[in-house]
């Protein structure tokens, strides 16, 4: 009998930790894995599953893949009427009966934590006739009897997290993919929009085991390990032990990603973070809102003054990428109040600012409060907010446009100096992005896929329209931003005529080959090679020659090293 565990991920670079953990814990060598992405044609996934000819098929279900899973389940029911189909994961655990009612070809749903449930299910299908009576005795499932009756079995008690096997022994199978790792399950907080708040049974993996597994990642020079712990620093001694270990055993390559509550970071933790290699860790910090009424309504605990203090302190050190989150559509936050939250968080200058939209998850407290909040959301996953009593759908559309502008002109980190200067033209950062949104909408740019260089052209045309007296100033800032990240040999249109002559270039690199005044680490390269590996630009507005060195990039933001070149180094005496 072939049992197939199937994951449909959001992107190719993702891997599904859940299905690997289920297979490893079951110790069933006959269990096979199949991973796909939502970007593949569902027909191709359908054909591949059909060719594999499983007897039992299990899908891992999340908000990003449920529509695809349901389509596949319906078609497989037609093609393989004897196929036994099980679903599991957060997107089906809290409304399992409804799932079985709308998908009559599904045998059952594994609810919540799945390792022990799946292992017992495998034994039932391997060693017996898998009767209704056997399934009735299996905790953690909702299933359909042979007569069509749906049976709700009790949820299973949580397991010892240290008993979950390490799934990455064949690390070569995860090449070019993000590696996900968990050192804890559950969450101590009760945020109304989050399913983690439903599971209050917080537990941690044994620290010695964690250290061994982290060393495995370090030894194999895994590019990135993303911790899926919901609030990594909720237990200080646990967080400190792990951060100390990765700091002391840093291989100079591996990056570790953590979701943290910034206002819970204590002095010892901050000092450890401050001493880390640039790029060793990155932090994701969920602010969501700075409105005290909103924070209370979503049953969240957050001291924004402390968050600001901690983020600023880490920012000052300059060695850690910080990603801060906001959620639009929360209670008591209209668009004016959301704009204040945006400006508050934007002022902290994180490397990334994620403007997300409320998703009303099944089983969450937010779902229970829909009528109270006048909240309507989309009927299909990811159940994103349409409007609330505070926020109209017109406001949501407006915020969607602002989200796009933030992604393009802030989170891309391709326009940092230009945008920082442009902010000074407006009363608030929110207003600036709103004006950019309006410009994109008026010109019809929003529905078009743009090349990177085209984004510079559009921003310059926006500046020409709104700030015509400062076009040359902003043009040169855009040129500076462009060459900070790209050693482009074809000059972009927005940059205009190149102002460094061939004679000046020849003189500069001849001098540099002789003296190594600016490019100390280029000893192995001649003048022609140095010229290819760097870029020299003259900025007439600022009256400076700037050299961009692409060998020595900032590990945190990948910007080229820059230095001002003396006039005499470009001109023969």
Can you characterise this structure?
It is a single chain. The longest helix has 19 residues, at 393-411. The chain is 40% helix and 17% strand. It is α/β, with parallel strands linked by helices and 573 residues long. The mean pLDDT is 94. The protein contains 22 helices and 20 strands. The protein is globular and about 90 Å long. The strands form 5 sheets. The protein has a 7-stranded mixed beta sheet, sandwiched between helices.
Helix/strand layout:
Blueprint: E1 3-9, H1 17-26, E2 31-37, H2 42-52, E3 56-60, H3 66-79, E4 84-88, H4 90-93, H5 96-102, E5 108-110, H6 115-127, H7 132-136, E6 141-144, E7 150-152, E8 179-181, E9 184-185, E10 203-204, H8 207-219, E11 224-227, H9 236-248, E12 255-260, H10 267-274, E13 281-288, H11 292-297, H12 304-317, E14 321-328, H13 335-346, E15 352-357, H14 365-368, H15 370-373, E16 376-377, E17 385-387, H16 393-411, H17 416-422, H18 429-443, H19 452-466, H20 471-485, H21 502-515, H22 527-533, E18 534-539, E19 544-553, E20 560-565
Parallel strand pairs: 1-2, 1-3, 3-4, 4-5, 8-11, 11-12, 12-13, 13-14, 14-15
Antiparallel strand pairs: 5-6, 6-7, 9-10, 16-17, 18-19, 19-20
């Amino acid at each position: 009998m072939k049992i197939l565990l199937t994951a449909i991920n959001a992107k190719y670079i993702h891997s599904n930790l859940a299905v690997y953990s289920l297979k490893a814990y079951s110790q069933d060598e006959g269990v096979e894995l199949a991973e796909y992405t939502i970007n593949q044609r569902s027909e191709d996934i359908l054909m591949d599953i059909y060719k594999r000819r499983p007897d039992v098929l299990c899908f891992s279900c999340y908000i990003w893949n449920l529509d695809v899973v349901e389509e596949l389940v319906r078609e497989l029911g037609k093609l393989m009427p004897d196929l036994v189909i099980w679903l599991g994961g957060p997107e089906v655990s809290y409304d399992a009966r409804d799932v079985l009612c709308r998908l009559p070809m599904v045998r059952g749903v594994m609810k919540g934590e799945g390792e022990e449930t799946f292992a017992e299910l495998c034994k039932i299908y391997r060693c017996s006739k898998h009767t209704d009576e056997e399934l009735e005795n299996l905790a953690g499932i909702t299933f359909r009897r042979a007569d069509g009756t749906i049976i709700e079995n009790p949820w299973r008690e949580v397991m010892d997290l240290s008993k979950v096997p390490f799934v990455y022994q064949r690390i070569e199978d995860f090449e070019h993919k993000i590696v996900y790792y968990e050192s804890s399950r559950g969450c101590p907080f009760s945020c109304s929009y989050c399913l983690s708040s439903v599971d209050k049974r917080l537990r941690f993996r044994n620290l010695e085991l964690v250290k061994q597994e982290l060393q495995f990642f370090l030894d194999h020079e895994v590019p990135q390990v993303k911790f899926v712990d919901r609030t990594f620093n909720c237990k200080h001694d646990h967080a400190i032990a792990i951060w100390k270990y990765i700091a002391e055993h840093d291989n100079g390559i591996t990056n570790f990603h953590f979701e943290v509550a910034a206002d819970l970071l204590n002095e010892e933790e901050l000092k450890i973070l401050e001493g880390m290699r640039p790029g060793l860790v990155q932090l994701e910090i969920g602010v969501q809102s700075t409105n005290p009424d909103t924070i209370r309504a979503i049953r969240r605990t957050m001291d924004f003054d402390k968050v600001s203090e901690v983020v600023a302190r880490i920012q000052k050190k300059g060695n850690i990428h910080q990603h801060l989150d906001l959620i639009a559509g929360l209670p008591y936050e209209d668009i004016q109040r959301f704009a204040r939250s945006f400006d508050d968080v934007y002022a902290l200058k994180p490397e990334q600012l994620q403007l997300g939209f409320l998703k009303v998850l099944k089983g969450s407290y937010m779902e229970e409060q829909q009528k109270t909040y006048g909240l309507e959301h989309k009927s299909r996953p990811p159940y994103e907010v349409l409007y609330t009593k505070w926020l109209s759908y017109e406001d949501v559309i407006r915020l969607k446009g602002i989200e796009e502008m933030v992604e393009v002109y802030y989170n891309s980190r391709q326009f940092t100096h230009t945008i920082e200067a442009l902010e000074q033209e407006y009363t608030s950062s929110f207003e600036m992005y709103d004006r950019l949104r309006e410009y994109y909408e008026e010109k019809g740019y929003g529905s078009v896929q743009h090349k990177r260089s085209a984004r510079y052209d559009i921003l310059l045309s926006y500046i020409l329209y709104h700030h015509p007296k400062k076009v040359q100033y902003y043009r040169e800032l855009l040129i500076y931003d462009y060459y900070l990240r790209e050693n482009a040999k074809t000059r972009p249109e927005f940059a205009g005529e190149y102002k460094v002559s061939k004679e000046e270039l020849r003189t500069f690199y001849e001098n540099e080959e002789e003296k190594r005044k600016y490019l100390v680490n280029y000893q192995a390269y001649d003048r022609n090679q140095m010229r290819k590996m760097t870029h020299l630009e003259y900025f007439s507005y600022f009256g400076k020659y700037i050299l961009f060195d692409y060998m020595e990039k900032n590990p945190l933001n990948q910007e080229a090293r820059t230095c001002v070149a003396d006039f005499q180094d470009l001109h023969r005496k």
